[in-house]
Amino acid sequence: MFLTDEEKSILDGERGAGYQKAMELIYALGLTFDAEKLIPIKRAHVALSGQEGDTYWCELLVNGGAVCAVPPTTNPYWDTAYLTKFFDVTREELELAERTGDAYRRIGAKLTYHCAPGLGTNVPFFGEHVAFSESSATPYVNGALGARSNRESSVSALAAAVIGKTPLYGYHLDECRRGDFLIDVDADMPECYDWGILGHCVGKIAGSRNPVLRFKNTPRPGQEDFLYFGAEAATSGAVAMYHMVGVTPEAPTLEAAFGGRKIPSAECVITNKELKAEEDSLTPATGEINLVMLGCPHYTYNQLLEVERLFAGRRVNGSTAFWILAEAGAVELAERSHLRQRLELLGVRMVGDTCIDEPCWKSFEGSLGVTDSPKCAYYRERRGQPFAIRRLSVCVEAAVKGRLD
Ligand code: F3S
């Protein structure tokens, strides 16, 4: 793999141990994937998680003198000031959260704490080379926006942000962005929840291949729809790039989606029946609930408004908590618009900067929760809370009753 004299000097440690570690990782990645050279990136997003491994890596680099050449935006951890008013956490959990914020601040990250950067806090242009971690963000920037990112880890994205470069391989190359196989879709997609279920279905079929979706009736998905589709395709599978014919920017035609390759016949057809079967396989649980959790990925302001509309003045049942995770800017806007105050009167709380996969939520574990996100259910169940998955309107009805029928 070709390195410039400057890149070699960083690898030799001439700029200090922090830059050297970052370059060692990028160089090793490049060698592993047969990259020809490094290329500059314009943007980065780091899936900071507030967990020990990511924090350790950031401290290692910054204590070695590294500062980001390209300031990355960051994923959420949890809002320690707000959530400790409601939940008990241990001193160790609090200290880890504080160490995380401190390390990323010192290395020069933009502390957006938002897991949908492509929607507003860090939006790449078409064709831009970037290094984005966060499983829901990578398919969004590749598929929906036509920017170019590999499936970075928090570790490799931070190394790329420090050096300002990434190895030229994978989704940075035209030949790796083309469609690998075709799926026909003949289904109604009324809500972003349905896009999430479609993504979950597609991810299982695709694995890490690039799916091309050909719709019977060309849809016009909005940003939340793209986000939920990609988040779930990257949860049930490892999809980082997809095409929707006549919809996404690199697929104006079926021929363009396959980049000149022979167009295969459709591997399968997804109709309302397959989506219903997928939903049923994900959502069997019923009974008393102690939590409704929304915002994985983070809710937008429009989604907050939709929650208020569905409540229609009713209140959350006294035995149930209702939490929405959203980008801090959306929470701030809701505060200014008094949407936050109106929702709180109904028993709905919202919080910025926070992920569902954090220790602050542990008091709910052991009882049934409800969410509109298969990704949320997947992560929460690993921490010991079973979750039913339902569309938003059903989540709201369950919150009002305190149970899911
Ligand atoms: Fe965001 Fe955490 Fe879900 S980073 S997508 S809330 S798992």
TrEMBL record:
Pfam family, one: AcnX
Keyword GTP-binding: no
Example of a GO MF term: lyase activity
Ranges for domain Phosphomevalonate dehydratase large subunit-like: 1-397
Annotated TM spans: none
Entry-linked InterPro entries: PMDh-L-like_dom (IPR007506)
Keywords: Iron, Lyase
Record-given protein name: Phosphomevalonate dehydratase large subunit-like domain-containing protein
